[in-house]
Amino acid sequence: MDVTFEGTARELTTDYGVLRYHEAGEGPPLILLHGSGPGVTGWRNFRGNLGTFADHHHCYVLEFPGFGVSDAWGGMPVLDAGKSVNVFMKALGIESAAFIGNSMGGVVGVNLAIRKPALVSKLVTIGGVGANLFSPQPTEGLQLLQEFADAPDEDKLVRWLRGMVFDKSLVTDELIAERWEAANNPDALETGRSMYGSAAFEMQQQFMASSDTPPYWSMLHKVACPTLLTWGRDDRVSPPDMALLPMRTIPDAELHVFPRCGHWVMIEAKAAFESAVLAFLGR
């Protein structure tokens, strides 16, 4: 099976622009949703896992609009991401699928499970879902992300990357160069500012203080599908206390915490993560 970038790359033309994705494997559908941050793509999040999951599932790694790969849709990045999943599934005739969502991708998956439960058969999240109960907000990792969004430079990118992992040796010169090049894409820069810049963060806080709209984490009890919450014990972006709320309020949720692991569970605890996820999906 060819799980190279070129061998799996696909394009889907929609009314909103071109969605790009990677496809591999046969079996029940599994859609993988990437997180946010400088230079992020679905391919970079999941390229190391795709071969393993494609041995058991028909995998789709979707590139969200506005992160420099798929065309930007011009709206709020998280809302556009959720909308793109709906458009993507409808276009490809996928009536229901299991999902793996990294950080922001997990939030997108949770919101989909709340609002359109028929689309989500099972859900795996990687950090990021819930609310800070004991840890400060913004967390250390989000503060580093905010510093980069306000005034991007390579040193800030390196500090943020090192904050994503427990094992700092994973932040190689090759990774830094790859992420720095991708982070300078105009769409990616604009998305970063709109999500994590100081001005955007202040507007979000004001909106939350004045809005009657409940936060998504207050509706986690509506997630009806079996859910596996995965977390790095040493996550400095979304510390493990965030997991307590979804673990308690999602009716059919279980939590797996990986030791000596930061925010990128699928990369830093690759073999253990894949084993836990395949066991969960295969039940």
TrEMBL record:
InterPro entries given in the database record: AB_hydrolase_1, AB_hydrolase_fold
Database matches in Pfam families? Abhydrolase_1
State if Hydrolase is listed as a keyword.
yes
Q: Where is the AB hydrolase-1 domain?
A: 28-269
Domain of life (superkingdom): Bacteria
Q: Does the keyword Hydrolase apply?
A: yes
* GO MF annotations in UniProt: hydrolase activity
Q: List UniProt keywords, sorted A-Z.
A: Hydrolase
Please give the name of this protein. 2-hydroxy-6-oxonona-2,4-dienedioate hydrolase
